[in-house]
Structure formats: structure tokens, C-alpha cells
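Hmm, what's this shape?
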Amino acid sequence: MKLTVAWIGRSKEPAIEALTNDYLKRVSRYAEASAMALKDEAALIKLSGRSAKNREKHMLVLLDVRGKQLSSEEFAGFLADCQDRNRGPLLFAVGAADGFSENARRSADFVLSLGKMTLAHELARVVLLEQIYRAFTILKGHPYHLGH
């Protein structure tokens, strides 16, 4: 499985960068994973393959408070389903502080919510990466999810 986590805007906190890199390294044990900062929503749409016919189209998953909430186990099932159906590379996207436009949400294959509480978008990126890592450990039967 190939996946990318992208976010709008540059990080300001070295601690966020360190946590992002740590979880990205962990996820890379289970999948081909990359991460990147993007300038704006238009760059995200272009990266997703929705604006160019000759580019590989990613399965676009946007993080948005209005999205579907999943338990860690349900999220693991979502990743397994994507892998089993060979839906192509996954592109998870965290928006800027003001979120995504309605147009971006409509163009997404899936809109995911991390919960009803508001998170700083930089923190949401770290939580997302941790949950991706947790999902892979659930699928592989690794004890991380159980706290052992």
C-alpha cells in the first residue's frame, strides 16, 4: 500500500515536525509512506489527480469535523478495505486552520473526522499519523493497540 499525508501550510513548531517524522517512520514499516506540506487547496487537488487526466488518481481522504467518525478498529478496517480493493494510493489531507472548501469535500472519496472536538491542524496531522500507525498494528496483530 502506498499512502501520503499532506497538509496545507508550513509547520511552525519543531515538536510537531519531530512527531510527524517519528510516526511517518513507524508507518513506513507497514506501507510505502510519505508526507508533505502544500501551499494551498489547489495544490492538493492537483496532487490528488483530479485536475489532470494523465496523473495517477489518488483515493482522497480529507480530515474534516463534518466527516465520518471511526473507532481505531473501524479505521483499520477502512485501510484493509482500501488495500484489498487495490484502490490506488491513498492521500490523506489535513486542511489549513479554516478547513476545506465545500468543493474539496465534494471531490473527496472519503471525509474523515477525528472527533467532535476542535484540534489545531498541526496536531490533527500528528493524531492522524498515530491512528494510521495504530491501524496497521491492529491489522498485523501487534500489541501496540492494546497498550502492551
